[in-house]
Structure formats: C-alpha cells, structure tokens
Amino acid sequence: MSRIGKMPIPLPAKVVVQIEDKTVKVKGPKGELTTTVHPSMTVEQEEGRLVIQRASDERHHRELHGLTRALVFNMVHGVSTGFQRTLIIEGVGYRAEAKGKGLTMYLGYSHPIEIPEQPNISFVVGEKGQSLIINGIDKAQIGQLAADIRKMRPPEPYKGKGIRYSDETIRRKAGKAGKGK
Q1: Alpha-helical runs (H) found in 20-128
Q2: Domain that residue 123 falls in
Q3: For residue 86, which of 22, 150, 40 has the smallest C-alpha distance?
Q4: 50 lies in a domain?
Q5: Alpha-carbon gap, residue 138 to 136, rounded angstroms
Q6: Could you give the C-alpha distances from 155 to 54, 103, 148, in angstroms and in order?
Q7: How far is residue 4 from each of residues 34, 40, 52, 70, 136, measured CA to CA in Å?
Q8: What share of the chain is helix, strand, coil (3-state, %, to 5)?
Q9: Which end of the chain is less crowded, N or C, counting CB atoms within 10 A of the terminal residue's CB?
C-alpha cells in the first residue's frame, strides 16, 4: 500500500465535506474548494476523517492513491488553516506595493509590473516593500503565483539581487579577480 495514501485525513471541527460521485467539495472557515478525483479512487467519510481507497494494486493505481490523498489533504488544510508563501525582494529600487487587492512591483524595468487581484489570494507587503507574503487556500495556486513573481527577476549569484523565496539560499559566486601587481 501507498504509505501516504493509506493515512486517513483528520477533519477539523469547522470543515464540512460533501462527496458526490467523484467530486469532493470541502467547505471551511476560509472558503470552499472542489476537485474531481480519478475514477479508480474512492473517497469515504467515516468518524470525522476521510479515507482514500484504490481499485487495485496496479502501479498506476498505487501512484494515484498517494496523489489523491495529498490533493484532498491540501484542500482540507487550505480551507481550515490556509497556506502562505514568503518572497524576499533584494536590490536597489526593487520593491512591492499593495494596490487595493492587487500588487505593483518595481523591479528595475522601465515600467512597474501590475499583478491583478486573484480570487482567494491576498498579498501582504512587508516594511519598505522588501518582503511579500502570499496568503490563500489553494496550495497549487499560491505556489504557481509565487513562482511567476520570482520569474520576473530571479536572484543572481554575484550580488544577490532579485526575488527569492524566504527559505531559499542563493549560492554566491566571487566576481572577477582584480589584476595583481
């Protein structure tokens, strides 16, 4: 059995799950998420927890077992607690500003970059615009948005300028060696 797939998903007190056919709806204090599971996977609710079961022990079904459990767990965690991703902005003149529910980034280009508001996502800009926290209920959506923002100005290894994740370390390189006498 899949080690991840066989673990039951505990349901917090304020989370309600509806299972219809192969559609799983999870509703909690932070919002609501819906997904469709693979036809060979079954999701059952029993005694305040969710259990994912597979049709057979074929390799494909074993792979889907862990994936389905992880996706449903992320939905439950997202609507109850939420997810966040923190980005650090380094560089002279590089900063972020919150504009309503959207975001404006100044990254050394000739124009500011506007990021429109996203459903179920909020931005928190830190002091001096040097840090950015992305909050939301959908883990995949937050991760993709953070990756897209990082891609606008990835960190460079010589001066460390750019946008990086808070838990990311950038391996710094030595610059040109000066001419010796």
Answers
A1: 59-80
A2: 83-165
A3: 150
A4: yes
A5: 6
A6: 43, 20, 13
A7: 21, 17, 10, 8, 24
A8: 20, 35, 40
A9: C
Residues 138 and 9: their CA atoms lie apart, in Å, by: 17
Residue 135 falls inside a structural domain? yes
164 φ, ψ (degrees, to nearest 5): -135, 160
Amino acid at 128: K
Q: Indicate which CATH number applies to the domain containing 93.
A: 3.90.930.12
Does one domain contain both 75 and 91? no
Q: What is the pLDDT of residues 99-147, one digit of tens each?
A: 888 999 999 999 999 999 988 899 999 989 999 999 999 999 999 999 9
β-pairing, 49-54 with 95-99?
unpaired
| pTM for the whole structure | 0.88
